[in-house]
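ugh ok fine here u go
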Amino acid sequence: MTADREGQRIDNFLRTELKGVPKTLLYRILRKGEIRVNRKRIKPDYRLVAGDEVRIPPVRVPEQDAPAPVGKSLAGHLESAVLYESDALVILNKPSGLAVHGGSGIQNGLIEALRQIRPDARFLELVHRLDRDTSGCIMVAKKRSMLRYLHEALREKRIRKVYHALVVGRWPNRRQRVNAPLLRDELRSGERIVRVQAEGKDSITDFQVLRRFGDLATLVEACPLTGRTHQIRVHAQFTGYPIVGDTKYGTDTDNAQMREWGLKRLMLHAAELQLTLPDGQLLQVRAEYDAEMARGIDQLLAKQPATGVE
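structure:
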């Protein structure tokens, strides 16, 4: 076992080494002791140490569990979406509608598709996540050392994430910090939702108005200082200005009106990332709007000319 894998859980190591093997099968062979480290049985939470000898038995994957082939259109889109790439990191402009990983009926998310179109890449792992309908900058590590470095940078708030969001109505304040604790909850239907609750985790987002479209909508910049699930979406709703196209936290009336004007997607975009690489280089990456978001803003301009920040 190389030093690059040191500290990785054995179950996550196996998911990387045995791509396409169902998690249920991986955990089954772990429980049965078929996976050995230094000739000993281990638990799924065992963390690897440099020099470990891992024995992996032959694993036969049922044909029906094989991932669906990535279509030429998606493959081409992902290759053209690369904003930055080095031997340790790739940053892409994720399209809206593409989940970052498979599951819940989705065979291929961004990471599974990327692994298929980059078959020679020994290591590709998501550094962070974006909601399925959010577009923009997403980081994928090509080395475990980079993954560890970026995870630490995220924990220490050394990576600046800048989002653009189109919200319903006229956002009143040029600049506004929303400090509202968030708590994850589950409805009776089983749907997961996030709410502002006093007993929730500290959550802070800085908002700044970029342009207003009369009283119809406002384009804002949102910089999350914490990294909670659905943070920007819930904080926007909490202020009274939900994001256009947000079917979970917005209103049916607002979304129906916006759809009539051609704004059919969640209008949230990860526009920029700023970070310092391990060698000290300052990296700033920007992602352009996709055609659908740009077209939606043009539709608003036709309805109501934009005004600058007052």
